[in-house]
Amino acid sequence: MSIQHRHIEVFRAIMTSGSVTEAAVLLHTSQPTISRELARLEYLLGFNLFDRLKGRLVPTARALTLFEEVQRSYIGLERIMDTATSLSRQEGGALSVVCLPAFSHALLPAVCKRLHRQLPTARVTITPQESPLLEEWLSMQRFDAGLTEHDEAPPGTRLIPLLNADEICVLPDGHPLLEKSILTPADFAGHPFVSLAVTDPYRVQLDAVFAAAGVTRQLLWETPSAVSVCALVAQGIGVSIVNPLTALAMSGQGLQLRRFLVSIPYRVSAVLPQFRPSAALTETFMQLLQAELADIRQRLDVL
């Protein structure tokens, strides 16, 4: 006889309740039945799952390890059932989105707010991921939609350009450079500068711009994300130039924005899988995403 689902159900009930008696209550059966099924499971496994101490069942190390795996399986099953129930009720549905970390902070929360207003029961899973793994996952058809800074579609996907804007200067409250509406590379000479990581493509472009202008900045601070760049600038310890989405999202928190004379393009593109069945929410999500980016475009135009 092989291990049956009922054996796992009995094991989970005992681990969850802490006793054979309570497990019998949970499963609406008798205590002897639970004891018998547990004994069968241990026999089939070839090792004990519990030590019997003074009438109590104490899980062994093997039982604890097995229980972790059982819990993962049940959580997966519960999610499947939740999705099936939602579909049967024709509720909002579900959507999985993979995106660069900057979008999970500076763009998608507002889009999700729009979606929640329109479809309160819709469920969205957001997975932040850096390139090139982001593009690999999209090519593998693992997500319903993706957001990237690239302008070329990964294999097996189609790309929809959504926004093309320039990087923006960020300065702390009260900084003398705030007197100017547009900043040039020369304006940054001698000022403490908060930089992205040396391998970041936007850092590479900025370094090239300042090198071409013959401008030396005080490169005192370095951090891997635009969010942390803005947080450091807001503390008044330096200035920087970052992507417009993060700059807008964090403005007004001790952070002021100014245009940069040199154009450093920043793109936002949606990526949709070609071979994955389209989720019911995809079209609505795309419409709301475009609406949010249109509002962002207007906010950038008035800077």
Q: What would you note in describing this structure?
A:
- This protein is an alpha/beta fold.
- The chain has three domains: 5-88, Winged helix-like DNA-binding domain superfamily/Winged helix DNA-binding domain (Arc Repressor Mutant, subunit A, Orthogonal Bundle), CATH 1.10.10; 94-164 and 267-301, D-Maltodextrin-Binding Protein, domain 2 (3-Layer(aba) Sandwich); 168-263, Periplasmic binding protein-like II (D-Maltodextrin-Binding Protein, domain 2, 3-Layer(aba) Sandwich).
- 45% of the residues lie in helices and 22% in strands.
- The protein has helices at 5-17, 20-26, 31-45, 61-88, 101-106, 108-118, 133-139, 201-213, 226-234, 244-250, 282-301; strands spanning 50-53, 56-59, 94-99, 123-128, 145-148, 157-166, 168-172, 182-183, 192-195, 218-222, 240-242, 255-260, 265-273.
- The strands form four sheets. A five-stranded mixed sheet has the order 4-3-5-13-6, sandwiched between helices.
- Helix 8 links the parallel strand 9 (192-195) and strand 10.
- The termini are far apart.
- The relative contact order is 0.13.
- The mean pLDDT is 92.
